[in-house]
Amino acid sequence: MYGLKEVPAASITPHLDSVDFPATPVEIASAAADGEAPHQVVNLLRLLPRPLYAKKEDILRDLSEAARRFAGGPRDHRDSLRDRRNIGREAAQEKRRHP
């Protein structure tokens, strides 16, 4: 299923069907590239935050959470006070410690 005005070729979901789980972000991106996914999709998958994904739904959950956080900006006054400069730092540091 595609969203309103979404380009089906740029959708991530069909490119996850060929992934053998569990898989790392690099393996997921590689499977998408082999399936001729657009380079934007491959690059996005390569940057997934978890070191290992057990199933497709876990990827979709992380992508949905990222979209929710960044789509509309601050929702109320408390959100505008939240420092968002270091979002993802823990995942990146964890990746460096356990490649």
What does it look like?
The protein is mainly α and 99 residues long. It has one domain (8-97). The protein is globular, with a radius of gyration of 15 Å. α1 runs antiparallel to α2 (39-46). It has 5 helices and no strands.
Q: In short, what is this structure?
A:
The protein has 99 residues and is an all-alpha fold. Helix content is 48%, strand content 0%.
The coarse silhouette is globular
- Structural category is mainly alpha
Beta-sheet strand percentage? under 5%
pLDDT < 50 runs, ≥5 residues: none
Question: Gyration radius, to the nearest Å?
Answer: 15 Å
Largest sheet: number of strands, sense, barrel closure: none
* Mean pLDDT over the full residue set: 81
Number of helices: 5
User: Total strand count, please?
Assistant: 0
**How many separate domains?**
1
Question: Termini separation (Å)?
Answer: 34 Å
Which range best describes the helical content: under 10%, 10-25%, 25-40%, 40-55%, 55-70% or over 70%? 40-55%
Question: How do the SSEs run, as a string of H and E?
Answer: HHHHH
Which characteristics define this entry?
99 residues; mainly alpha; 0% strand; globular
Give the helices and strands, then pairings.
Elements: H1 25-34, H2 39-46, H3 56-71, H4 77-81, H5 89-97
